[in-house]
């Protein structure tokens, strides 16, 4: 357990973001979660469609939040319309205008929150596949999280714009950490993405492509780091891959 005194996260900033979200009109509902004695919010979208395809936990990037208009809101809303229950959670945040190193220090703090959110999804949506979708720094956090798991905690991982960070800390070595993950992975990024995402795409692919026959890497033409103007393309690309991963087994005649 991480004591609040040892946290790098700016809890006052997190509270301001949570309060702003609570005061705004959101699609879905706010859920209150707790991990390591820290309370944090999640945004749950459950359209209660005829077909429940699975549950999706969504992790935001640096300087973002669970209800951000780019990446987060389209994933939460549109995947729910396609039959996925989605939950986006507030991740630890550094102070405003903090350095990259300050943000990297947050990676080790996400495990209790992800555990709490996945526990909520397991408890409330027991019989469905579980997926984690993570963007940018959130993707770095997710890769580190899954690489350290000793047992199956979720069924698939989608990383969007996974960056290469200028840090020697082991938790930032995403290309190497991908080798340790056996669940299906989709690595999706934009053709106009950040240089530190595009440059290492071949190395990422080499690291994980043989771990699982369902693993894929997808470069989206015209897309930048936050898929500006290409929300539908991002959502459908992820949805279609998940439908392939979780397609029902062929029944014998």
What is the compact description of this entry?
It contains 9 helices and 8 strands. It is an alpha/beta fold and 253 residues long.
List the defining traits of the structure above.
disordered N terminus, globular, alpha/beta, Rossmann fold, 19% strand, 253 residues, 34% helix
Which of globular, elongated, flat, extended, rod-shaped describes the shape?
Answer: globular
Briefly note the structural class of the backbone.
Answer: alpha/beta
Instruction: Supply the CATH architecture.
Output: 3-Layer(aba) Sandwich
How many strands?
8
SSE arrangement, N to C: HEEEHEHHEHEHEHHEH
Quote the average pLDDT: 90
Structural Rg: 17 Å
State the share of residues found in helices, binned by percent: 25-40%
**Number of helices in the DSSP assignment:** 9
Strand order of the largest sheet: 1-2-4-3-5-6-7-8
Describe this structure in words.
This protein is of the alpha/beta class and 253 residues long. It has one domain (4-245): 3-Layer(aba) Sandwich (Rossmann fold), CATH 3.40.50.1820. It is 34% helix and 19% strand. The chain has helices at residues 11-23, 72-81, 100-104, 111-124, 137-147, 174-178, 195-198, 201-208, 231-245; strands spanning 29-35, 38-45, 54-59, 84-89, 130-135, 156-160, 185-190, 216-220. It has an eight-stranded mixed β-sheet, sandwiched between helices. Helix 6 links the parallel strand 6 and strand 7 (185-190). It starts with 10 loop residues before the first helix and ends in an 8-residue tail after the last helix. Residues 1-5 have low confidence and may be disordered.
